[in-house]
Amino acid sequence: MSTIVGCPLPEPYDGRVESIREELVAAFGVEEYPNSFPQFTLYALPEDVEIPPVVGAVERAVDDRSPVTVHTDGVGVFPQGVVWLPVAKSPELAALQSAVVRELEEPAPVPYYEPSRWFPHVGFAGTGSDGQTGAIVEFLLEYDLDWEFAVEEITITCPPAEGELHEQLAAIDI
Predict the structure, then answer these.
(1) What's the pLDDT at 131?
(2) Secondary structure E strands in 51-119
(3) What percent of the chain has pLDDT over 70?
(4) What does the longest C-alpha to C-alpha distance in the chain come to?
(5) Number of domains, the chain
(6) Which tens digit of pLDDT belongs to each residue from 43-64?
(7) Which residue range forms the structural domain that includes residue 45?
(8) Which 8-state DSSP code applies to residue 16?
């Protein structure tokens, strides 16, 4: 798993994502989502990256920036069975992500975080290839996922030395 530089969802949206994830575990038996912090990733780094330089890079990237308003709606699926909530890639959000990438000066572990290929999303569940993806999408379509909120901070999370779930290491205000 990777160290994640991401934008946490504010209340009440973080609680809604947590609740939906819990319902998916109970209703479909999927595993708990590995990054328990409801957020969308700006960039992923190797899990063994040194954190203080990452914090400095993010601080430089957000210097003189204001919070960014984002909009979500719908449900998406990646080919490997990850079900997610799309976050609209506005020019302001794209500029924030590009600034973070530029300051980090680290190659992404996967190319999908390069600014030209980045697709912001909030993960709900990984279904693998067990055939539940369609049923999970239908389940999620019953929810009102048309949300708008301000992104006011960037967090850095990573998997702990022991265990599966991510832990938050830093939070930087925008």
Answers:
(1) 77
(2) 68-72, 76-77, 82-86
(3) 95
(4) 47
(5) 1
(6) 999 888 899 999 999 999 999 9
(7) 3-173
(8) H
Split at pLDDT 50, 70, 90, the class of 80 is confident
Task: For residues 158 and 162, give the distance between their C-alpha atoms in angstroms, rounded to a whole number.
Answer: 11
Give the C-alpha separation, 149 to 40, whole Å. 13
Provide the pLDDT for residue 99. 96
Q: Is 171 left (phi over 0), alpha (psi -120 to 50) or beta?
A: beta
Buried b (16+ CB within 10 A) or exposed e, 124-158: bbbbeeeebbeebbebbeeeebebebebebbbbbb
Count Cβ atoms below 10 Å from residue 70 Cβ, excluding itself: 21
> What is the reported pLDDT for 19?
97
CATH number at residue 169: 3.90.1140.10
Please give the DSSP secondary-structure letter assigned to residue 33: P
Q: What span, in angstroms and rounded, lies between the C-alpha atoms of 146 and 163?
A: 33
Interatomic CA distance for residues 155 and 160, integer angstroms = 15
Sign of the C-alpha dihedral computed for residues 38, 39, 43 and 48 taken in this order: negative
pTM of the model: 0.91
